[in-house]
Amino acid sequence: MSRRTLNRSGASSNFDIALPKYEPPVCSLTDAARRSLNDLSNTRPTAVYQQQINESIRLLGFSVSDIHERLRTQREALAAHKARREDKGTARSEEEQRLEEHLVEFEERVNALTESSEKAVRDLIDRRAELEDEDGIIRGVYDTVTAEADEQRQRAEAQEDGEEGEREQLAASSVIAIYKDLRAKQESEYKSMSAYQRYAVHNDYAGFKKLWHDAVAGEEGPPLPDASRWFTQDGEPVMYGAVSGMGAGHDDDDDDIAVAREVISINCPLTLQPMKDPYTNRNCKHTFEKSALLEYLPMRGESQCPQAGCSQTFSRARFDQEFFNDQAMVRRIKRVRQAQEQQEMEEDDDDADGDDDVTVRGQQAVPGRVPKKERRGS
Q1: Closest Cα partner for 133 from 177, 194, 174, 187?
Q2: Which of 69, 157, 234, 291 is least crowded, fewest Cβ atoms below 10 Å from its Cβ?
Q3: Which compartments is it annotated to reside in (predicted)?
Q4: What is the reported pLDDT for 241?
């Protein structure tokens, strides 16, 4: 009779059925299942996720760069307007006042978007770390269940041969429990790392930071501060001190009061040609064409930075850790090329205006050249 029936008939409601103690589902993997687990750890398809993470970080960097360039451009326009007004000695116009009020609101929005974008980049880097750790975790699960299966097989063979007496058979560990334990251990190790170790030395974050800084500083601005200054001692990102490297947790010093303007060439120091795929070193900040740099680096050992006067050493084995694809330099090269093309077009227009057809002795003179005067007496 069910409990519901007993309650309806007026029987005691304290009657209860003793349930067995809960046991999590545990089953040992077969040889085929272990082979599948091994294959999964080696061939797990993550290329699509990696591509989406790369594209998201790239778009976040370009977005932050664009909004800061617009803010800087409007600031420069306001400064130029003020300078012209002061030269004329006129009063502040309504247009100038409107632009000042707009810049205050616009700067707040830019800072808020930058803060959320910077956090999104760090979150994406964390997701990538999880993807990369997942292969090792699955491999760890495979190694654990394989070791248990081997031990159980050895015990069974020993009992069949009569070498050992009756021994209690080992209980198979839960695959889910093994996975959770390894995952928790990996997360604990990752969280124990500093913000500098997790993000500042990461290529994606370095590229994002470079785009952000160059948009704030402009072509005439100081160089990007060292990566060790991108985070405070508490692990918080330095958000609004991109130009000088200042932020919470940093004290003023002489090096921050006056920072020399950074002079950057778009030509590779190795090829002496404009770069197409620029890679920048994290330590010395010098940039090179990737193909030329890989050709320059030896297969083993280290080489000194080819930039004159730099003592930094490079290693092919540490290439991915020491260099990053400099998207800020890519955009700078694009701007320089556009400016050069515009200048060439203007020069062509000037040449066309000065190319008058001059006839000397019935012949057409060479365009752009002044015809020679005839000598007297000839």
Answers
A1: 187
A2: 234
A3: Nucleus
A4: 44
**What's the pLDDT score for residue 341?**
81
Judge residue 181's burial from the number of C-beta atoms within 10 Å of its C-beta, 0-12 exposed, 13-18 middle, 19 or more buried. Answer: middle
DSSP 176-219: HHHHHHHHHHHHHHHHTS-HIIIIITSHHHHHHHHHHHHHHH-T
**Whole-number pLDDT of residue 127:** 92
Q: What distance in Å separates the CA atoms of residue 286 and residue 227, rounded to the nearest whole number?
A: 14
DSSP 277: S
pLDDT tens, 111-143? Answer: 999 999 999 999 999 999 998 888 889 889 888
**Main-chain phi, psi angles of 336, to 5 degrees:** -65, -40
Note the pLDDT of residue 258: 35
Phi and psi angles of residue 313, each rounded to the nearest 5 degrees, phi first = -105, 145
Kindly report each contact of residues 27-35 with a partner whose C-beta sits within 8 Å and lies 24 or more positions away, as own/partner: 27/172, 28/145, 28/148, 28/149, 28/152, 28/172, 29/145, 29/149, 29/172, 29/175, 31/149, 34/142, 34/145, 34/146, 34/149
Region class of 258: left (phi > 0), else alpha (psi between -120 and 50), else beta: beta
Under 8 Å between Cβ of 135 and 44: yes
- Residues 264 and 242: their CA atoms lie apart, in Å, by 18
The pair of three-digit structure tokens given for residue 157, joined into one six-digit string: 């063979």
Query: 172: Cβ–Cβ under 8 A, 6 or more apart, which residues?
Result: 26, 27, 28, 29, 145, 148, 152
pLDDT at 293: 92
Q: What amino acid occupies position 263?
A: V
Residues in the chain predicted with pLDDT less than 50, given as ranges, are 1-12, 241-262, 356-378
pLDDT attached to residue 290: 92
- Which are the contacts of 211, defined by CB distance < 8 A and separation ≥ 6? 61, 62, 64, 65, 327, 328, 331
